[in-house]
Amino acid sequence: PGFIGTTEAEKLGLDRSQIRKLLRAGKIQGVRLGHDWLVRKDSLRHYLSNCGHHRDRRRRGKVGHSKKTS
Description:
This protein is of the alpha+beta class and 70 residues long. Helix content is 57%, strand content 17%. The chain has helices at residues 6-10, 16-25, 41-51, 53-66, and strands spanning 3-5, 30-33, 36-40. It has a three-stranded antiparallel beta sheet with strand order 1-3-2. Strand 2 (30-33) and strand 3 form a beta hairpin.
């Protein structure tokens, strides 16, 4: 399987701390090398496509702006 570092994984919509939490919780697969993690690409893509996290985060941002009233 292909692995990517957390910096590359961030480009898919999650920040580094979220990625590490998911890895520790077993929600995505990867290996720890010292202080760094390598994430299985297929595992991260599967998680993102099934939970819709990156889409929800964008929607929340838009909703928050549209609720502003004067």
